């Protein structure tokens, strides 16, 4: 499952990529370009714009209409509407910066690297914050 984020939804980009989903965000695309990209690349459009959502559905593009600015609430809605389980597993994660799947560098200590931009990732404080936020996803 692949996603395309509408303008103003850049804050969801990192999360969806860390969760392992091929996700694009480009502020310069017009509504028509967004629809075309979603259709051509088989991406689910995520937007907060009701008019665009209506248009998108008319063009047979799978669409999730968000009404919250909260990350956890937004991810919950995406999860519910697309019937996917958003589970954090860094072995499936994509680089938050460039969308490339991460590769395991070593198991002890656990490290991953993005072969495209060269960034390294490891279990640290940042990781625990991410896990904590994502754990909230499946709680009441
Ligand atoms: Zn990268």
Number of folding domains?
1
> Major beta sheet, specifics?
4 strands, parallel
Instruction: Assign a percent range to the helix content.
Output: 25-40%
Shape: globular
Report what the structure shows.
This protein is α/β, with parallel strands linked by helices and 140 residues long. It has one domain (1-140): Rossmann fold (3-Layer(aba) Sandwich), CATH 3.40.50. Helices cover 36% and strands 19% of the residues. The chain has 5 helices and 7 strands; from the N terminus they run βαβαβαβαβββα. It has helices at 13-18, 31-41, 50-58, 71-82, 125-137, and strands spanning 2-5, 23-25, 43-47, 63-65, 103-107, 110-113, 120-122. The strands form 2 sheets. It has a 4-stranded parallel beta sheet with strand order 2-1-3-4, sandwiched between helices. A 3-stranded antiparallel beta sheet has the order 5-6-7, with no helix packed on it. Strand 3, helix 3 (50-58) and strand 4 (63-65) form a beta-alpha-beta unit. Helix 4 (71-82) packs across helix 5 (125-137). It is globular and about 50 Å long. The site of zinc ion (ZN) has 8 residues, from loops.
Task: Summarize this structure as a short list of keywords or feature phrases.
alpha/beta; globular; four-stranded parallel β-sheet; binds zinc ion; 36% helix; 140 residues; three-stranded antiparallel β-sheet; Rossmann fold
